[in-house]
Specification:
It is built from 15 helices and 22 strands. By secondary structure, the chain is of the alpha/beta class. The protein has a 7-stranded mixed sheet.
Amino acid sequence: MRIRFAGAAEEVTGSCHLLEVGGRRVLLDCGLIQGGPRDEARNREPFPFRPRDIDAVVLSHAHIDHSGRLPLLVRRGFQGPIWCHHATGDLCRIMLRDAAYLHEKDAEWANRKRLRKGLPPVDPLYTRHDVHEALRLFQGLDFDQRREILPGVSIRLRDAGHILGAAIVEIWLSEGGLTRKVVFSGDLGHRGAPIMHDYARVSEADLVLMESTYGDRLHRSWEATLDELREVFREADAAPGNILVPTFAVERTQGLLFLMGQHFHDWGLERRHIFLDSPLAIEATEIYQHHTDLLVPDAARFFRSRGQALLPNLHFTRTAEESMAINEIRSGAVILAGNGMCSGGRIMHHLKHNVWRRDCHVIIVGFQAEGTLGRRLVDGARFIRLWGEAIRVQARIHTVGGLSAHADRDGLVHWYHGFRHRPPLVLVHGEARVREALRRVLRHRLHAPVRCVREGDIIDLRHIQREVHGS
């Protein structure tokens, strides 16, 4: 009865944790490693376990850093069920297909260069066929429904308040008369978010695994964040260039659309054309419209409108031709385009055509991993390279951190505070310095028995108190 940390132990992406009990093996998440080329190359390395030996996967939510290696897991031999919330399954259907398409395109682009150099071709990390095979294994659950998924293994999903269908995973492991309860936070949401409910509180656990993405910082209040957005739009009105919003297809896009609807005239949006330039975000928005029962009441009413009727001047641009036509617009456009870290997607083309303009504004609305173009923009890069061309950055870069879908430091502390008897706590899914900062706060405020693990570390769940307290 043990847990092995096989991913996102010392970084923000690649979530993957292996539970073993009674000869059964359950994987919590199987996410893609994201960042720079060196980071992403690690996705091709062998898993630290044999995929065909895994009996089941429990998926916390659909974000690619939690789900993105599932097709690869299947391709390498896994054939068990993948348990998740129904909405997570719906989102994975579009997100994993999109990821496979990008892997195929990346391999095609690389092979053109390799052919000219006389090098053998490379295969994509996985294909759309692999995604099809993985999607056949998905099994949907509702929130708050306890289910035995294997002999000696039961799970219950609780609302994490992060994105549609995102779950806190409660998992009970029984062997030889001993039962241990492990609670995995998944990614916890930002309390008071525009469209999602607040995360559920859990009171009992023998071991807690908690993410720490924003464990060293506090988000601005929602009121201050809305004031900040209003000022950005008003500043843009004074020099009416285009406004670029690199956005994540799931949750961030839908949250922004809702806020734009709520503040349509206050932000002067009636004077602009708003483009949702992401086929994936458009499909994700349609899935949100299908699951309005999971949204807060005001957001549910907003998303019951269909398609582009959400806003009177909203344009969905699905095709490449429609996207390219936006670049003929020199001013007056608000362009929401993927991807959120500027590491690919249509936002790259919009940056090429706009970021060198002094009247352009770029609004960064989400976490930017180390090594990504988005992180370089946030850090004040004066030049960026796109397709081998150096482009001067003269646009105004605005970082609106209050829109994050992640809990901040105090949100994480608040969630853990809900547990009785201060169960042992392991911090995962965070950069090393961030985890260490959160660990110190948890020890100081709550005297929490908390540790930071490394990839490959193993905790024996039979002796959990001694293991964690003695670390």
